[in-house]
Amino acid sequence: MHSRLPLACRSLTVGVLLSALLAGCSASVEPDEAPRPSKPALASTPAPESSATSEPKEFSLMVTGDVLVHPPLLEQARSAAKSGNGKDYDFSALLAGLKPYANDADAALCNLETPIGTPPYSGYPRFTVPAQILSDLKSIGYDGCTTATNHTVDAGTSGVNRTLDALEEQELFATGSYRSKKEAQEPPIIQIDGIKLGVIASTFSLNGLPEAADWQVDTGVDAQKLIQRGKSARQDGADVVVAAIHDGTEYSNRPTAQQRKLGRELAESGVFDFIYMHHTHSALPIEKHDGTWIVYGLGNSVAKHATKTILNREGISVKATFSHDEKSGDWKVSQLQWVPHMLSQSPVAWCQVFEASACLPEADAKSSLARTTATVNAYGAFDDGLEDWKIE
Question: What is the pTM of this model?
Answer without folding.
Answer: 0.88
